[in-house]
């Protein structure tokens, strides 16, 4: 009978399918073009049935088995065509080909008929149908072996043919054949492992029955049963030998070739399946002979392969009974697993941490403190899955041991609870990690594994308020501060139910259970902290840091609890403590925390509003009255205010400003007093800096709150006129303060002025607010000029010019850069929203290349936005910026002509005397002050080209023109100091790299969330250049530059070059490192400078200047990148190896994921046997003479004999 799988007919118009027919073939059944025909209906082939996946796979297999029993050649031919079609080949193996041709010839013929128009094949095609196909394909093979395990697979025909075919296809040059056949062979091997496992169990049972029967008394012993059991055991042993041969054929013919295939998907398949073999049949496969393949492949260059290695090992380490067999493997590859926690693929890093957690769960002795330390730091990772996995590891390591509680004893609470020591351990860990500002990340990492511990707020408050018991060590001040911060983070996490900033994956819909947990936690925390917060504030009232954190707790309260729980007296105590803190402190952070607390409590939806509002109004009344009284005395004419009066005014002004940020204080008319204070500062010029800064900020709040009141719709004309007058007066005041001698005051005035101009621009009338038209204010030309001048003089400056006497540390430089970036962003907003003329952006755009690392992203975004607004005007602005750059080059060339004239004629008195026209340099020195800083360096380097070494040493009067001219060029013309955070201005970062290329640094910083752009050597138009490392030739004789590499090639970069000569098809995973290294190109020695030069035409000068500037820009960017790499390395060591915090995109941590081939393996393989290993299933557990397992085989050569080595050909 011909094989007729299910005989599924194509659906008719009515939508009904043909009936299932099994057994004998129906009348008229036949075969045409590879499809079965019955009663005029086309029936689907085996491939189509499996692809559709709508039928039970066991029925499909049973039909095929029936066909095989009837005509095994025809059924086997259908199975062969099934594998061919599953590979995407449209060719069909005919019966004649099957009978007369070898497998290699058939595969060659199918290769010729393969459709190569598209690279897709069933295993790689997109779509829901093909996604299910792989599962159906694997299921078919598993079911086929399971259904045939008792008879057909031992006929020495079916399995031999299939294994031979799959082995040949797996060595094909066609990727589709190789991929599909490897998957089929590995699934076939897995199915055979299950068969072998069943045989082993049956043999053990038979052996046990035989031993039981033989041990009976002779009279009761059944000899026929003994013979039957012996015969059965013999048959099982023969079947086991057959299975061993099949598995050996697949392992040697497919696995040892394909686990090093050039295609990552194929390598991943092999590793995934060998993990299944070791897990299913550990007695046979869980030994070093097979584990070594997983260990070697953990160094694979593709993340998906490394991921399969880790998941395979997790299945083994999860079973504690297997730990003893994994000891040698763990000792050999533990370091590699630990290093994979910093893998550049986040999924790999997560699974590596989970694997180490399983290792830790099995035994504490394997992982050293250094190994654990490398995982601990990952709790601060910006990638949440990595942090959660690290948190679980940390929790199991440090918090899994609790003090046992006595049975029947009352449950200990507070300071005496079992969690007390664990909370202290959390505090100690947080302090030792030296990342004090990232407690929220630590809490989020531990939340899933230790939420019950972190939500034990009663124990935390007890540790802070209660006295320690005798013999217990009290918390230090630093530990109390850390505990309060952790407690605040746990409250926030429980109330908001989302991770901290930088770890969020978007808004997630909470389940009903999560919402109920959130409500219960808020209720519990409110009931607890409503009582505990006032005494906590009273105890730490003088500590600014502790108070700031404690005052944030009421923001997460359920305020109804104050009424429903009859906690009004505790509310009164809280308000008294907040009032006392406001009176004691002048720190801005503390005052703003008090302001936010009042704002959270003053919610009209709750009944406590009136009580809190009265307390707030009383406090503000006293503050405003005190400020007006102090201000009157402070500004009294004829008297010089002392420092105490200035301090009183400043402290009161700070409190009012902090409250005005969150509360409307319009009823107290603060504009007049603040404006009077600012006006006095302008007139006298001796107003303290901080008073002016806070007066400007407070007045800004006054104007904004007034605008909010007017914008509500119910306003009078008088209010509109008054607001317009106040706004214009305030803008004029800020403009006057732009010329203040104090930099902080100028920056504050500039920032506020930009905000006010943006708020009161023509944009405010959009959205149906035409009534606000009278308030629109556009800056005049003088104001626009002053704003632009401020940007050019305070933003586009060298790093060392902005220190102002500060200590030259990295943190100060980072803070200074962030401040300048904010100033530039504020001005660029004015350009984007058409508040200032677009052509003012020309002076900004021309700085793009020179300050690319610091401000490149801001300038580029501004260019993009202006282009969207007006393409023509944007183009004109860009042309204007290019014209300005060109004019700067022309000025430099003019100075070059003067220098050439001064050195053109030699001295008539002979060598050693100054040139004839050297005095012309006195004239040029008068114009040096007109040059920009970077142009001075350019001209100075050009001057040095005409000077000899002897000239630089001359100090006689006749050489004074040269000396004075050099000094005029060197004044303020030193080399730029690198901006240490030059990389913080670009967008997006890759997370997590250990290596930083000198020419293209990529790094991130938590607050900036940006990536360093790549330095392009070919694109640079900056004039900030020097020729410090260039040859001393004239422009006329300027040679073509030598292109030499600036990067050193490591061993990993040069490995495999010698091996490529032997076999280019290998992927190079295990290639030997090359001993030869590339010799660098010899550098060209600089030529001796000549005193007298041939006159140079103007175009040549411009060309030479551009070339020199371009080369110098590349050099400076490379130098900045190298210095930045050093800085970034230091930062990474303090945070975690390669991971920044609060990043949107983490930078890759591990780039070198490949092992250094056999050179690295030598340390693992000393004294190991190199013989090819055969699969040897273990004998019956009750067999008396049991063979020993083979010793350790951690050696790449142990898998290949000479014949295998010669046949290992990999194709891409």
UniProtKB/TrEMBL annotation:
The keyword Zinc-finger does not apply. SUPFAM superfamilies: ARM repeat. One of its GO terms (biological process) is sister chromatid cohesion. It holds the Pfam family SCD. Residues 1203-1212 have a biased composition (Polar residues). The keyword Coiled coil applies. It is found in: Nucleus; Chromosome; Chromosome, Centromere. GO terms for molecular function: chromatin binding. InterPro entries: ARM-type_fold, Cohesin_Scc3/SA, HEAT_SCC3-SA, SCD, STAG. Residues 998-1007 have a biased composition (Low complexity). Residues 255-340 form the SCD domain. Residues 13-34, 985-1029, 1169-1212 are annotated as: Disordered. Residues 196-249 form a coiled coil. It comes from the Eukaryota. Keywords: Cell cycle, Cell division, Chromosome, Chromosome partition, Coiled coil, Nucleus. One of its GO terms (cellular component) is chromatin. Component of cohesin complex, a complex required for the cohesion of sister chromatids after DNA replication. The cohesin complex apparently forms a large proteinaceous ring within which sister chromatids can be trapped. At anaphase, the complex is cleaved and dissociates from chromatin, allowing sister chromatids to segregate. Part of the cohesin complex which is composed of a heterodimer between a SMC1 protein (SMC1A or SMC1B) and SMC3, which are attached via their hinge domain, and RAD21 which link them at their heads, and one STAG protein. Belongs to the SCC3 family. This is Cohesin subunit SA. It comes from Oncorhynchus mykiss (Rainbow trout).
């Amino acid at each position: 009978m011909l094989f007729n799988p299910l005989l599924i007919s194509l659906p008719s118009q009515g939508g009904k399918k043909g009936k299932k027919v099994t057994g004998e073939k129906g009348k008229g059944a036949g075969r045409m073009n590879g499809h079965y025909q019955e009663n005029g209906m086309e029936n689907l082939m085996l491939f189509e049935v499996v692809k559709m996946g709508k039928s039970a796979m066991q029925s499909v297999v049973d039909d095929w088995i029936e066909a095989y029993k009837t005509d095994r050649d025809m059924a086997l031919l259908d199975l062969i065509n099934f594998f061919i079609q599953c590979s995407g080949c449209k060719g069909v193996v005919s019966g004649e080909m099957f009978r007369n041709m070898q497998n290699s010839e058939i595969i060659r013929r199918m290769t010729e008929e393969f459709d190569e128009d598209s690279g897709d094949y069933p295993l790689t095609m997109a779509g829901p149908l093909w996604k299910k196909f792989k599962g159906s394909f694997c299921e078919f093979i598993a079911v086929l072996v399971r259904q045939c395990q008792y008879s057909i697979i031992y006929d020495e025909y079916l399995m031999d043919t299939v294994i031979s075919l799959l082995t040949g296809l797996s060595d094909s040059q066609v990727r589709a054949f190789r991929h599909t056949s490897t998957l089929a062979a590995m699934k076939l091997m897995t199915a055979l492992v299950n068969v072998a496992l069943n045989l082993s169990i049956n043999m053990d049972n038979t052996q046990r029955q035989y031993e039981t029967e033989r041990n009976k008394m002779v009279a009761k012993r059944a000899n026929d049963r003994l013979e039957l059991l012996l015969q059965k055991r013999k048959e099982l042993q023969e079947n086991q030998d057959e299975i061993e041969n099949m598995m050996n054929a697949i392992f040697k013919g497919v696995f040892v070739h394909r686990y090093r295939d050039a295609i990552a998907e194929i390598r991943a398949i092999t590793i995934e399946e060998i993990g299944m073999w070791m897990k299913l049949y550990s007695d046979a496969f869980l030994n070093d002979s097979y584990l070594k393949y997983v260990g070697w492949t953990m160094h694979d260059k593709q993340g998906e392969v490394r991921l399969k290695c880790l998941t395979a090992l997790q299945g083994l380490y999860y079973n504690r009974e297997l730990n003893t067999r994994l000891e040698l493997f763990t000792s050999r590859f533990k370091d590699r697993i630990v290093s994979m926690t910093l893998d550049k693929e986040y999924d790999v890093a997560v699974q590596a941490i989970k694997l180490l957690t399983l290792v830790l769960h099995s035994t504490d002795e394997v992982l050293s403190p250094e190994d654990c330390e490398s995982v601990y730091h990952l709790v601060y990772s910006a990638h949440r899955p990595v942090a959660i996995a690290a948190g679980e590891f940390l929790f199991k390591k440090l918090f899994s041991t609790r003090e046992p509680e006595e049975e029947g004893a009352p449950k200990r609470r507070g300071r005496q609870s079992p969690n007390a020591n664990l909370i202290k351990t959390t505090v100690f860990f947080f302090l030792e990690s030296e990342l004090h500002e990232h407690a929220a990340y630590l809490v989020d990492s531990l939340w899933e594994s230790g939420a019950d511990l972190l939500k034990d707020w009663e124990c935390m408050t007890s540790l802070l308020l209660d006295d320690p018991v005798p013999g217990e060590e009290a918390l230090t001040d630093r530990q109390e501060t850390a505990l309060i911060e952790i407690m605040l983070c746990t409250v926030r996490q429980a109330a908001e139910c989302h991770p901290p900033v930088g770890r969020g994956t978007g808004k997630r819909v909470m389940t009903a259970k999560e919402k109920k947990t959130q409500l219960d936690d808020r209720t519990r925390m409110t009931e607890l902290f409503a009582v505990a917060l006032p005494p906590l504030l009273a105890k730490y009232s003088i500590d600014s840091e502790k108070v700031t954190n404690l005052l944030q707790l009421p923001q997460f309260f359920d305020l109804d609890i104050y009424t429903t729980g009859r906690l009004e007296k505790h509310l009164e105590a809280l308000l008294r403590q907040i009032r006392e803190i406001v009176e004691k402190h002048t720190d801005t952070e503390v005052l703003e925390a008090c302001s936010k607390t009042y704002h959270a409590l003053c919610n009209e939806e709750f009944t406590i509003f009136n009580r809190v509002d009265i307390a707030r109004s009383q406090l503000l009344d006293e503050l405003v009255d005190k400020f007006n009284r102090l201000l009157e005395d402070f500004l009294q004419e004829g008297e010089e205010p002392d420092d105490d009066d200035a301090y009183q005014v400043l402290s009161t002004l700070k409190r009012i400003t902090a409250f005005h940020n969150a509360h409307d204080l319009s009823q107290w008319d603060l504009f007049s007093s603040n404006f009077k204070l600012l006006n006095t500062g302008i007139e006298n010029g001796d107003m303290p800096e901080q008073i002016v800064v806070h007066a400007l900020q407070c007045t800004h709040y006054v104007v904004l709150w007034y605008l909010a009141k007017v914008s509500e719709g119910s306003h009078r004309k008088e209010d509109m006129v008054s607001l317009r007058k106040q706004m214009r007066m305030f803008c004029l005041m800020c403009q006057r303060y732009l010329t203040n001698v104090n930099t902080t005051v100028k920056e504050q005035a500039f920032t506020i002025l930009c905000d006010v101009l943006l708020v009161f621009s023509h944009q405010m009338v959009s959205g149906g607010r035409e009534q606000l038209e009278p308030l629109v204010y556009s800056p005049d030309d003088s104001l626009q000029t002053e704003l632009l001048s401020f940007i050019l003089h305070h933003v586009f400056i060298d790093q060392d010019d902005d220190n102002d006497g500060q200590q030259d540390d990295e943190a100060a430089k980072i803070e200074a850069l962030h401040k300048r970036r904010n100033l530039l962003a504020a001005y660029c907003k004015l350009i984007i929203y058409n508040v200032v003329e677009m052509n003012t952006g020309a002076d900004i755009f021309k700085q793009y290349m020179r300050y690319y690392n610091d401000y490149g992203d801001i300038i580029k975004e501004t260019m993009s936005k202006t282009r969207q607004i007006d393409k023509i005007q944007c183009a004109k602005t860009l042309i204007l910026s290019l014209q300005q750059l060109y004019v700067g080059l022309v000025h430099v060339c003019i100075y070059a002509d003067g220098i050439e004239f001064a050195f053109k004629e030699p001295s008539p008195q002979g060598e050693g005397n100054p040139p004839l026209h050297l005095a012309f340099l006195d004239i040029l020195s008068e114009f040096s002050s007109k040059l920009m800083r970077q142009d001075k360096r350019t001209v100075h380097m050009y001057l040095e080209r005409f000077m000899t070494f002897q000239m630089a040493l001359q100090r006689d009067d006749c050489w004074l023109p040269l000396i004075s001219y050099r000094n005029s060029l060197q004044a303020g013309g030193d080399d730029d100091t690198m901006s240490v955070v030059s990389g913080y201005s670009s967008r997006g970062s890759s997370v997590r790299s250990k290596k930083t290329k000198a020419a293209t640094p990529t790094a991130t910083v938590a607050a900036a969330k940006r990536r360093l752009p790549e330095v392009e050597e070919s694109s640079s138009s900056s004039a900030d250049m020097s020729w410090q490392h260039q040859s001393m030739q004239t422009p006329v004789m300027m040679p073509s530059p030598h292109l030499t590499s600036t990067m050193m090639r490591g061993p990993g970069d040069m490995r495999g070059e010698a091996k490529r000569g032997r076999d280019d098809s290998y992927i190079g995973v295990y290639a030997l490192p090359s001993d030869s290294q590339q010799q660098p190109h010899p550098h060209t020695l600089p030529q001796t400078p000549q005193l007298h030069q041939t006159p140079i035409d103007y175009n040549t000068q411009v060309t030479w200047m551009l070339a020199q500037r371009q080369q110098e820009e590349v050099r400076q960017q490379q130098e900045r990148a190298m210095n930045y790499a050093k800085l970034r390395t230091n930062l990474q060591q303090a945070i975690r190896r390669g991971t920044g915090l609060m990043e949107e995109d983490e930078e890759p941590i591990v780039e070198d994921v490949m092992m250094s081939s056999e050179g690295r393996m030598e340390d693992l393989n000393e004294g190991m046997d190199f013989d090819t290993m055969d699969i040897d299933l273990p004998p019956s557990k009750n067999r008396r003479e049991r063979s020993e397992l083979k010793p350790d085989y951690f050696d790449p050569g142990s898998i290949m004999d000479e014949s295998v080595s010669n046949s290992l050909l990999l194709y891409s």
